[in-house]
Amino acid sequence: MFEQYPETVEQPGERMKSAIEDEHYTGMAAADTIDIGVDGRLATAGARVPLQPDEPRDFVPDPPQITWGVAFDAETSTVTLRYELGPELDADRLWYDLVPVDAVNRIENQPLWPDRDTVGPGDETTVEMSDRPDADGVDVRWGPKDDPGMRLFSYVPERTE
After folding, report:
1. What is the pLDDT of residues 11-22, one digit of tens each?
2. Which fold has domain 63-161?
3. pLDDT higher at 38 or 60
4. Do 96 and 78 contact (CB within 8 A), yes or no?
């Protein structure tokens, strides 16, 4: 899990730890140890959660492990997302949401790859942040369209004014 906090937030690692404990993030509940790292405004949480082979895998709370590459073009206000590593997936399970940092309970899933059946390593897509001027960042989500699903990661670009 990655979170990027505004410069006004003190102790982003403590804030992330509280969020994990208070909001009961799916997937983190079974973790014995959660490692939280802080690098400036970026806080990351990592945990190893054992698979439960006797239980069926639930589609939403058991997201794929994907490594993403991200590039922001300030002139065009676009974010390019590159699927670096992970399994090939049905494209209709990956979504994006343009979201202000302070948005609460507002998710508007948009297809990340609307014209594709499957996606995998090496695939790229571009998100137009100018479509929503109040957006501070992009959430990449996993799940069915009519469900908020699970946030795989958030990206908040550094903007120069």
Report:
1. 666 766 666 665
2. Immunoglobulin-like (2.60.40)
3. 38
4. no
